[in-house]
Design goal:
The structure is a homodimer of 466-residue chains. Chain A is α/β, with parallel strands linked by helices and 466 residues long.
């Protein structure tokens, strides 16, 4: 690792002591390329990182992310849609990614638009492109999902991912979304997939073929063809990542929807409810409980054929670096840390934490050779999973003590059992909630010890001198 | 705030980049007093800090702790009692405070002793005293409780707080502790209270009169008298803090047991279980749920007459500063962030977070005038409370979605509702679990971006040049 220059160290202290009211990361040497790689672990709060560390490296081990030289904390900020002067305490990926991408605070579900008055907010990727930087988004989710979308699109609801989802569409299980005002017919920019197909983005990699197989609004032509007409080369296989043409933009979609995750519980097991005895159900002071059996994590067979996030990140960096004399902005998301926590699947979370960590290694290796590269790693919001004692702290007491949620007891490679509890929604309901907490921010360059999520936008902008 | 010296900045970067294998905070100017103030928020992980911030300062506001210039993360490490080569993933306050106090990793429940072989581990307070520093412990818990005890005592179980608790004693509800080997009769140092009474500690402030009202082992004399014989002045009232004699050590115990907390829920309310309808109990897809009514926080009448943690901290600093030409080591604990989270009382947690924050302000003010003062603020382990959306993220779906735990819906001063969920044990069982997570570390001086909990001991030791 390169030694920091003295002026950077002083700057670091100055920032940390609050002397710099506008955040000014180290100025780039003129004529050098300036790059930003923003890596987002969706839902990756400190607990989720710890779950990954305990399994992947052991309690005493270190992930690549743990060795980042600078660390801060981020206040996640969300406002009410109907009264944006009022805060609420738990975010979703749409409003939090919009904060990082635009510097604004908005309401849940919004993609690159403001709460209540629904104005488009200019994103860091758009500003970078205007100033001659190459830009890219990489995600293990649909590339139209909330986090990547917030960097490149503007629409009132995250559910409006393709042209068929714009008007009174059922996003899922009875939830209706409506982005009528964003349709091209009414002068809007269209769905998220259309905005990506129409845009000037150098790299788009991830999942979501199903959204680009839809016809464009009022056109008998699928969106991947629209993208090809707009000078995107369109790839769908991992091996094609090695053969991309630097003279064309790159759209790579490797799965119908969210990319399958790398790891799963033994034989596909997820979390299970502790089973209290009949007596214990009647009175918590008597009877006992049967806990779920411990399990190992294993490779998810559905992951076969998928590119690793590491490989997508490497391909994106290479493509972006080749396509701009100024440098680039790249957002990389490990999306399913969040999605697997929603689904109570800690093994899935762990594998996606590993994917993030490997991608960070790729970014750090690039930054070693390209020192004007700012790397930021952060989360957008907290997630439900909690590590609990395996066997209650109070199990010397003569009563059955067990978590109220769905539980996994994971056998870690160091031979211990890590108990993970998910208890934010009823057992039958299939999805856990997000949580409200500050989230970590890691960097290869000096950052403030604490900042708000919209201030991440300032760090990005200042590094690119936009 | 003073500007950092350039060498400190460079040192900061060096530490952050992992260039310094032994942590070397800024060297003290010779002949100057060197001081350490270690502030521990028991159970104060990032979520618990966020609960405090949302209520006390608003979502966008900042606590004093949030403005600390340096921030890192701490790996909490715990081993099995019977096989100390094996890690477990959730700590208690005894083993984690012992890590910070001694640099060792031990098993849950142990106070200043090693796992399995039960050896006494020298504490930072003992080392500091030997080198001519004044030393003190301040806590809102019993001063014999796990966190303060780990800095000044050595015993195999945290339950052995007084002479009557040493041999086959019931610590609580059927849980038996036994520290026979630590009795003076068998050549041990006695209970925690006896060790404090016998010790050369300049300041001991907190709760726990009941432990010092017990007679010393095999003596017809209460421990507070033993302490007085050992040159402690013994005080029990807040107002006495203003009139202490600097020529005597100070033992101040202001309550029978844990000090009452500053805040409570409206009319003493704690968390309550959501009430699903009969239909919903039968099938989660139908029926509805009644959530607990929102509530404000209010002053706890039992707190009246208690000294604030701020006042105890100020008195301790003043007494310690007067009693040593070399400087001092002080540990201050806001204990009931943890205890109120165990009891599912977020308003209580918030008040104790405020107490910690006020005490930190006192420490920072002292450090302004005494720049060789290292202030560290950290937590010992995670706690159960989670901030959830008030109204599920999925409440557009036509089913009742609610947390599985006990819930408080707190009306914050900025007029919003913060929902806090506790779901790590059955509703009838009165105590929540700790959680496994990295915890935050804050400092007024450069610290590594990440370190293990035993390495906190190194930071303390190196600053005092022990």
């Amino acid at each position: 690792m390169k030694h920091p220059k003295v002026f950077k160290s002083i700057l670091s202290a100055a920032i940390a002591f609050g002397m710099a009211t506008t955040l000014q990361p180290a100025a780039a040497e003129s004529n050098d390329k300036r790059n930003v790689i923003l890596i987002i672990g969706d839902g990756m709060d400190d607990t989720q990182v710890t779950i990954g560390r305990n399994y992947l490296e052991g309690a005493q081990g270190r992930l690549v992310i743990d060795n980042m030289p600078y660390r801060g904390a981020v206040q996640v900020l969300t406002v009410h849609e109907n009264d944006p002067s009022k805060f609420i305490y738990v975010a979703d990926s749409a409003n939090s990614a919009t904060s990082m991408a635009t510097g604004a605070i908005t309401s849940r579900g919004r993609i690159g638009t403001s709460a209540k008055d629904d104005k488009d907010l200019t994103t860091i990727a758009e500003m970078a492109k205007t100033s001659g930087f190459a830009t890219g988004i990489v995600s293990t989710a649909n590339v139209t999902d909330a986090t990547p979308a917030s960097f490149v699109a503007h629409v009132s609801s995250r559910g409006c991912e393709n042209p068929d989802m714009m008007v009174n569409a059922e996003a899922f299980a009875g939830v209706i979304v409506d982005c009528s005002a964003d349709t091209k017919a009414l002068g809007g920019k269209g769905s998220i997939a259309e905005q990506i197909a129409d845009a000037d983005i150098d790299v788009v990699l991830g999942g979501g073929q199903k959204h680009f197989n839809k016809n464009a609004e009022a056109m008998p032509k699928p969106l991947f063809t629209v993208a090809q007409d707009n000078n995107y080369q369109y790839i769908t296989k991992a091996k094609q990542l090695a053969q991309v043409n630097p003279n064309q933009k790159l759209l790579g979609l490797f799965s119908e929807s969210t990319m399958p995750v790398r790891m799963q519980g033994e034989n596909g097991r997820g979390s299970e409810a502790p089973k209290p005895s009949f007596l214990n159900k009647v009175d918590w002071r008597v009877g006992d409980v049967e806990m779920p059996a411990p399990m190992k994590c294993e490779a998810n067979p559905e992951f076969e054929g998928m590119p690793n996030l590491r490989d997508m990140t490497a391909a994106a960096i290479s493509h972006l670096d080749a396509r701009s004399a100024n440098g680039f902005f790249l957002m990389v998301e490990s999306a399913s840390i969040d999605k697997q926590s929603h689904a109570r699947k800690p093994c899935g979370q762990i594998g996606e934490m590993q994917q993030l960590d490997e991608s960070l290694k790729v970014a750090l290796d690039f930054a070693k050779e390209n020192p004007n590269t700012l790397i930021l790693v952060t989360a957008d919001h907290g997630q439900a999973a909690q590590i609990l004692p395996d066997g209650s702290l109070f199990n010397a007491m003569p009563v059955a003590v067990y978590p109220m949620g769905m539980v996994s007891r994971i056998i870690t490679p160091e031979g211990q059992i890590m108990a993970v509890n998910y208890a934010t929604t009823p057992h039958g309901f299939p999805i856990e909630e997000h949580t409200g907490t500050t989230v970590p921010l890691y960097s290869n360059q000096p950052i403030p010890a604490m900042l708000t999520q919209p201030e991440i936008f300032n760090l990005l902008k200042d590094h690119l001198q936009l």
